[in-house]
Known about the structure:
heterodimer; A: alpha+beta; 2 domains; 6-stranded mixed beta barrel; two-stranded antiparallel ribbon; 15 helices; elongated; B: alpha/beta; Rossmann fold; 4-stranded antiparallel β-sheet; 36% helix; 30% strand; globular
Amino acid sequence: MIFKLAWRNLFRNKRRTIIAGIAIAIGLGALIFLDAIYTGEEVLLPQIATSTFLGEAQITHEQYRVRQTVDLTIQDFDETLGMLAENPYVEAFTARAQAFGTISSARDVRGISIYGIVPETERKMSILDEVMVEGEYLTGDNTRDAIIGTKLAEILGVSLGDRIVLSAAQAISGDIAQELFRVSGIFDFGDRSMNSGTVFIGLDVAQRLLGIGETAHTIVLKFLDTNYSRDTTTAFWSDFSKGGNVAVSWVQIMPEIATIDEMMLIGKISMSVILMGVVIFVILNTLFMALYERMFELGVLRALGTRPIGVAKLLMFEAGALSIVGIVFGVTLGFTITALMTHIGFDFSGMEFSGIALREKLYPVMKLYQFIIYPVGVFIFTLIVGIYPAVHAARIAPSKAMRKTM
Amino acid sequence: MSEKIIVTEDVKKTYDENGVPVEAVRGVDLTIKSGEFSALVGPSGSGKTTFLNLISGLDTPTAGKIWLDGKPLSEMSGRELSDFRRDNIGFIFQAYNLIPVLTVEENIEYIMLLQGVPKEERQSRVAEILEEVGLGGFEDRLPPKLSGGQQQRVAVARAMVAKPSIILADEPTANLDSKTSGALLDMMHELNRKTGMTFLFSTHDQIVIDRAERVITMRDGVIARDEVR
């Protein structure tokens, strides 16, 4: 009966209940939507970061990431490649030689990063082949081919077919080596530093230019399951972090991504607290309005023999019922908006996050927990918040509540 | 008829109205016997409503003692008072005060529900009492759909259904026309005779006063006159 009474009381002032329900619904819908965006970002940002060029993990000489000198190549290179080929967690990998050097054209000279890559395997690890805007991706047929970024081409005043000279210090001897190349392709990563400071050539040519023999500086790899890259407790990391080499996850290579994740999480929590606070005050306001509006009636209920706890229960049930109405609307709203945006997405193309160019749309990701945790959270919070007006109602002396007559 | 159902001894009640003490009841000694059909009359501000609040346990006296059915109210906790009201006192209010969102049947069975009466018994007692007050067939109506007289009949049924020993009625005819008031009073008087329930009215209405077997007049917080007819 108390529940029936509470439910019917809720609809005595339909307009107020609808407004309160909508406010709760907007709060809950926003919570669900916000979580979906955050989840989408959590998936997208590392995906872009790792799929653009970084990879999910890298194997280098143990000193290379600190000193980045050309002589610090991967130890036991062929054996390491063999181990990777047999590793059940690894989907793909590629080797890169890497050094700082200069590029010169007829017009200008620039300091750049030279990457020696294996065109076929590089396709699986980065988007280099997809971001070509002019000419062709490296084929491996012509050892004199080099591909450069749009900005660098502009600075140097070169276009397809033009000659460029790459210079770099050789390993061990430290002698400066030079080689002539032709611009065979121009790429646009959407990232200023990549577009203005990077040149790609074949790995074998780079090995010769840098004097490193048949080895490389970095092996970049991708796991079958991207979650392996976050779990640094698996045997993979220790298996490849020995013999002078070290295997590191993208999380360590780009800690700023993890920082962005943390910032987004803090933002999400802050927004959740604010939205939850709004929902709580809406409920509190509605319950107190209902309480003062029906003070006399509550006095009558007490006079009829309803115990204080019975009056408190009535108010708690009303809070719960109001919450359920809001939750039904909120889940519907959250689902509708999120489902819609998972198809439309947010277009952040051209924006850059910590050196990562956003090339893809951000799509919110719907998860079952969003439709369980947040509604249950709102319901529990509502009940907790409902305790205050419920106790207030239970404590009112019946004679005070009914002061006007009996 | 001789059992003392309400006994008050030097009952006083002083309110604090914005720092000013107001003596609403100033030492009332009263005994109501079981089965009486009495009226508490007096001008506005004479202390009738405050006195009814005190003897029903809705309010606590500043001084004095009250016994209901032999039990001292001052020794009861809030919960015990609630249970005592539920089981022993029926209330009829001036503005009916039915719960508008509950049907006639639900309004009447509410107290029995608090008492834990089984559903079948509740339904049969509701049907029975509605027949008694002449509202058979109105079970599923909502109070706002009833006339004032019908609503007050439902209020009477609600007050009586749990078979309390005392019915306290505060200006029960104030919102009714004289014909409806007379009919309602006759009905209550008949129920009083049949069931032996004690009725105590707080009223200005001459129709109630004319039917009362005892008229207690209050003035300035004290009993000025007590007339048994």
